[in-house]
Specification:
about 110 residues; mainly beta; seven-stranded mixed sheet; four-stranded antiparallel sheet; about 55% strand
């Protein structure tokens, strides 16, 4: 199982960014995938999750209405579209499947 996150970068507050998680070594369509983030000096926290069929989604209260998770099972990729970014969204974003973690991609939101 491999999960590779990419797409992070530097963006100004109020801007948008999309991060992606490329999955390999398993059938993405069969599994729920989560996005987590970890800010410097803070614990890792759950941000969003999508079910295997994309029939349900979860969003942390802090990102509801601003972030959208979606998946392309054929492309074996899960995306997190982030709009109206705030400085507190800064952190390393990781995708997750059970005990498997991607290497993370850094998102920095400047004020």
């Amino acid at each position: 199982v491999q999960l590779q996150a990419s797409g992070g970068g530097l963006v100004m507050a109020g801007g948008s960014l999309s991060v992606s998680c490329a999955a390999s070594g398993f059938t993405l369509a069969h599994y729920a995938i989560g996005w987590f983030r970890q800010a410097p000096g803070k614990e890792r926290e759950g941000v969003s999750c999508t079910s295997s069929s994309a029939g349900w989604e979860y969003y942390a209260d802090s990102v509801k209405g601003r972030f959208t998770i979606f998946r392309d099972n054929a492309e074996k990729t899960v995306y997190l579209q982030m709009n109206s970014l705030k400085p507190e969204d800064t952190g390393t974003y990781y995708c997750n499947l059970y005990e498997y973690w991607g290497q993370g991609t850094l998102v920095t939101v400047s004020s």
